[in-house]
TrEMBL record:
UniProt key word 4Fe-4S: no
Annotated EC: 5.4.99.26
InterPro entries: PsdUridine_synth_cat_dom_sf (IPR020103), PsdUridine_synth_RluA-like_CS (IPR006224), PsdUridine_synth_RsuA/RluA (IPR006145), RluA_PseudoU_synthase (IPR050188)
Top EC class, one word: isomerase
Official protein name in the record: tRNA pseudouridine synthase C
Chain's role: Responsible for synthesis of pseudouridine from uracil-65 in transfer RNAs.
GO biological process: enzyme-directed rRNA pseudouridine synthesis; tRNA processing
Amino acid sequence: MSDAEVSFPAPAAEPPLELLYCDERLAVVNKPSRLMVHDSKLARGEDDFLADRLRQQLGKPVFLVHRLDRATSGCLLLAFDRDTASFLGKQLMEGRVRKDYLAVCRGWPAESAFTIDHELDGGPGKPVKKPAITHFQRLLTGELALPGSGFDTSRYALLRCQPQTGRFRQIRRHLKHCFHHLIGDTSHGDGRHNRNFRIKGVHRMLLHAEGLGFDHPDGRRLTVQAPLDDEFNKALALFGWQLPDAAQA
């Protein structure tokens, strides 16, 4: 075969994004970990964005109602017209959207339920600090047979989290503030504990937007949940954890 006849397979197409709920006005998509939501100063040369994929997949404009960090997976709310986006955005601003996250942190928080009320700035270039409140529930605890801090094992906990406000990387930074760093967080986490999970084959940040509860423009109250991906489930399996239902929190 001559050089002119050599052919190469086309790159594999990305699978469609999973729509957890969709109607003519809005949708909730299950955002994969490691996929950026939209282009920004943090993109650093990236050219693959969830918003662009969705516009192509659905064949119409999309308006993002909120954001998730690149490394975070789970429920992402969007609208298909400006009026719906404004209606949903107002709920967010007024704290009427229920947001539940799952997180794996280092250590065992002493209390089964606790709140972090600690001001945060707006991230790079936004030094002004604003109120930031996150509620946490300790769901499960476990240990890995990896030494650390003078002990033969390392302790971890599964948390459910509800950010009352929406500051930059709020859950991640609040967990750092209380010394229960989020596993897999390379910006605000603990490198030794991140390595423990990489040794066990878990390479993602363990933060997942588990559920959203909000009012639809037609008056219904919608509750949407996103299943965990295989890698997050692999982390839970290290401890033999069975995920409690959100209604039990």
